[in-house]
Every structure is written in structure tokens, then in C-alpha cells.
Fold this sequence. Notes:
- The protein has helices at 17-34, 121-141; strands at 5-6, 9-10, 44-47, 54-62, 66-75, 80-90, 95-98.
- By secondary structure, the chain is an alpha+beta fold.
Amino acid sequence: MMVSVRNxxxxxxxxxxxxxxxxxxNNYIFIxxxxxxxxxxxxxxxxxVPGAVDLRLIIQERTRYTTTLTLTHVFxxxxxxxxDLDIRVYHDARTAEVLPSSSIKSFGLWExxxxxxxxxxxxxxxxxxFLFRWLRYCLGEGHRFVAV
Length: 148
């Protein structure tokens, strides 16, 4: 990810369109590590890791160039799920992005300010940065979906 440097201080990544595309590419890499054989995955599958919260993958749509899926943690005997991210994976471009249909309002990304328009760079940056960090966390816990 590109960063800007000011007076020898490492600053946060610049929230530009180019950096957003790089974030999409990184999300694709993590999705493919989590689900190596996305084309052969069942429509609904759960990854269970001892000592970790279950992770559920639901394939919503498969086309030649894209796969749309939902990823969520499952709490309390399949009753509570969070964060319920709808993600579109673009196979030809090797990118993945969070879709505006995701259920993230109660997740607290914008606690001190109103949620930006889902079409804006600000919204896309925040939710896809969250996806990047969450995927890294899930992989670190040992989650992985393997086609049977």
C-alpha cells in the first residue's frame, strides 16, 4: 500500500482511487487464501476452528468473471451474525470489494460522524480497509474453506 512521507514521519496511506484499487487487490489475495478453490465451494459452508468464532461463507452468485459472496461470523447457535459483508470477487481483474448491500450499520465504523454515501471514496475506503483487516484476522485464526 502506498504511503506518504512527511518530515521522516510515516503517515497513513493516502486515500486515493489508486490506493483503493491496491486495497481491492490485497483483499482478493486474502480471499483466495481463505477460499483457494472458490469455483468448487458449496453454496453455504462454515469454517470451524477450535477456540475461534465460526466463519460462514455463502455463495450468492457465480458468473464467468465474478463471484458474489457473504462472509460473516456466527455467534450464539446460528442466531447472531456479524459483520455480514457482501463481497464481489472479480476473477479477471483479481480484485475483491465490499458491496453497499452489506449489513455494517451496527458495526461502528462511523461512530462520530454520519455514514458517507456508499458510492463515495470515503465509504469504499473504510469498508474495504475493514475487510482487509478482518480477512487477515480470520486467516490468522486458522480459518480456511476447502472444497470437499
